[in-house]
Amino acid sequence: MKTRLTVILMMLVLCSSLSAYAAVSISSVDQTRISKIERYIYGDEQSGEAGTRLNQLEEDMFGHATAKPENEKVKYLHDFIFKGATESPSLDMKLSFLEWKLFNHTGTGSLEARLADLDRQVIGNISNEPLAFRLEQLVHLTIENGLISLHRVRIPRGTEIKLVLGKSLSSRDARKDDLVQMTVADNLFVDRNILAMSKGGIISARIRSVRRGGRFGRTGYVNLQIRNIESMDSTEIPVEVAYAGMEKFDKKRIGMAAGASTLGYLVLGPIGIAGGAFVKGDDVEVPAGTEISVRTLHDTDVTGVLVHRK
Length: 310
Hints:
Blueprint: H1 2-24, H2 28-42, H3 50-62, H4 70-83, H5 91-103, H6 111-122, H7 131-142, E1 150-155, E2 160-165, E3 169-170, E4 179-184, E5 188-190, E6 194-197, E7 202-211, E8 221-225, E9 228-230, E10 236-241, H8 251-254, E11 265-268, E12 273-274, E13 278-280, E14 283-286, E15 291-296, E16 300-306
Parallel strand pairs: 8-11
Antiparallel strand pairs: 1-16, 2-4, 2-15, 3-14, 4-7, 5-6, 6-16, 7-8, 9-10, 10-15, 11-12, 13-14
Helix pairs in contact: 2-3, 2-4, 3-4, 5-6, 5-7, 6-7
C-alpha cells in the first residue's frame, strides 16, 4: 500500500512538472509569432492559454485542429501565412495580389474582413468556409491557372519605411518587454511593380525600458526598440529610426514644441529621441496612429510578388 501511494505521488509530481513545463514551453519568439498571426487574422491579439489559441487558429484557418506540438503549430502557421515556399507564395502574398488585381490596392483590417470584400466582389456573397480554403477558392476563380509570379528583388540600404502605431502607448501602464503593435504605413514597391512590403503588414516592436512619472517633477518615458522589420516573405530587415522626415510631424499635435522634450518623450531604439509623444502631466501618451519612420541599414534581397499597377 505504501509503495502504491509513493508511485501515485511520484506520478502526480511528474504530471505537475510536465504541466508547468508545457505552460512555459512557448518561447518568446513563438509568443511574438502567435501575436503577429492573431493580429493578422483577427485584427488584435487574443487572450488565453497558448495551446487553446493555437487550436482556434487552426480551426479558423483550416477547419480543424491538429495534434502537432505547439512549437510546430506556430512555425507552420507563421510560414504558411507569411513566408510561403520556394515556388509557392504565402497566404499574405496571394491575398495582396488578389486585392491589387481587383481593387488596385491592398486592403486593411483583419484577414476575415479582407476576404469578405473579395468574396463579395468575386462570388457575390460571403463564404462560411475556413479562411485558407476561401482564399484558395478566390485565387482559382480569379487568376488563370492559379499562378502568381514571384520575383527576387533588392531593397536598397537607406530605404525609408513608415510604421504606424496600432494602439495608444503610455508610460503610465507600459511594461518592459511588452510587444508594441505596429503596421507598415504604405506599400513598398521595388523596380516599380514588385510588391516587397504591403500596407498594413504586421510589425512587432518591443519596449526596451519604461519609467513612470513620479514626484518632484520626475518625468516618465518609454524606450521603444525597433531593430528589424519583415518583408512579405518574412525576411528580417535591420533598420534604424530615420530622423529625416521628423519635421513632417505637426509639432503642436505631437508635443514637440520648444521645451516639450524636457517634459517627456518617446525614445526609439538606441539612437535618440523621436517624435510622436503627447505629454500629459508627468506621463507620456503616444496616440494610436503615430507614424515612425525607419531606414534600412543594409541592402537586403527579398522575394516579392509582381502586380501591375494602373
